[in-house]
Design goal:
binds uracil; Rossmann fold; 6 helices; 9-stranded mixed sheet; two-stranded antiparallel sheet; alpha/beta
């Protein structure tokens, strides 16, 4: 799976193990999702283009660089909202394109229900964020949707992934890089990642058992 980039870093590994722990409280869970996303985004944006700029420092003119790209962050509702703040910390002028998918509990597949993209979305590099890359169904549909809207440069950021989903996604969208902090053992009969971390949305929003 050439399009999959597993971001290995001791800080990410450490934080991920606390994130997985069922005893980790929602406020700590949210903090960790934010921190891990922040660290991962650093890698996922490593190849963004720069333009030359001159800046007057108090001492002299510096020949320096600024981003030469407009970013659109696409959180998949709702769990990815927990990752959004970290993106704004690193890329404050990113636009947000919301994508709403919900899991059909019978088929375990994603069903589209909402999208709100910025008007200039075709000019932007899209970074889709979703904490869990499970069956790949949502990811495939989200990328199909953005490609259908004319978005050309798309990348995907997920904290925890399942090999089945990554394989399926790579067969359909080999041009879209996926950045993930780890690839777990697989999916269980309910489409949950094993060992995973449970339902990310419920843990972010403290709605377990709702
Ligand atoms: N979504 C989740 O929140 N967790 C999983 O394990 C799979 C999908």
């Amino acid at each position: 799976m050439k399009n999959v980039h597993v971001i290995k870093h001791p800080l990410i590994a450490h934080k991920l193990s606390i994130l997985r722990d069922e005893k980790t409280e929602p406020f700590h869970f949210r903090l960790l999702v934010d921190e891990i996303s922040y660290l991962m985004l650093f890698e996922a944006t490593r190849d963004l283009p720069l333009r030359d700029v001159k800046v007057q420092t108090p001492v002299a003119v510096a020949n320096t660089h600024k981003l030469d790209v407009k970013i659109m962050i696409c959180p998949i509702l709702r769990a990815a909202l927990g990752m959004l703040d970290s993106v704004f910390k690193l890329i404050p002028d990113a636009s947000v394109g919301f994508l709403g998918f919900q899991r059909n509990e019978k088929t375990l597949e994603a069903e589209f229900y909402y999208a709100k993209l910025p008007a200039d979305h075709t000019e932007r590099t899209a970074i889709i964020i979703d904490p869990m890359f499970a069956t790949g169904g949502t990811a495939i549909d989200a990328v199909n949707f953005l490609k259908g809207k004319g978005v050309k440069d798309i990348r995907f950021l997920a904290l925890v992934s399942a090999p089945e989903g990554l394989k399926r996604f790579g067969e359909i969208h080999p041009d879209v890089p996926v950045f993930t902090a780890c690839v777990d053992e697989g999916l269980n009969e309910n489409g949950y990642i094993v060992p995973g971390l449970g339902d990310a949305g419920d843990r972010v929003f403290n709605t377990l058992g709702a």
